[in-house]
Amino acid sequence: MKKLTQTEIEFIEYTGLKMQADGLPKIAGQIFAVVVLEEEPISFSNLVDRLKVSRGSVSTNTRLLESLGVLDRVSLMGERQDYFKLPDSPYTQLFERKKDRLVDHMKLLKKTVSNMPKNSFKQKRVQDQCRVTEVMIENIEDLINALKKI
Predict the structure, then answer these.
(1) Which of 14, 74, 81, 104 is 20 to 30 Å from the Cα of 139, by its Cα?
(2) CA-CA distance, 52 to 6, in Å (whole number)?
(3) Domain spans of the chain?
(4) For the segment 68-106, what is each residue's pLDDT rounded down to a tens digit?
């Protein structure tokens, strides 16, 4: 296992903090950053050693990243442990999942609006949230299309 440069250490730490600020565990962000920097799949044990965290933390957070679509678990011939790599388009998958959540949210908002008294203060406020959510969905679709071209 090669020694990390100061730049790589800072990238890993920064990515962990940014993902933590977005509501994910810091270790998940650090694992993601390590995998971003690797040309080849990285082993479970190398993640433990590189990040100096427990096997349980690596296990929990790799499963989380897999569920988000930003990490693939792979096996290598003759190896007993799991390896991890970035999927072909991890960033597109992240935003597609975000769009799906917004679409689900929009359904709830529309149902809420339809069940409120017409032209009430509350209905107008929820309609405003509908418009904001529509704009977000449109912009995420544009972003997804742009990312697919990368």
Answers:
(1) 14
(2) 16
(3) 6-85, 90-148
(4) 989 999 998 888 899 999 998 888 988 998 899 999 999
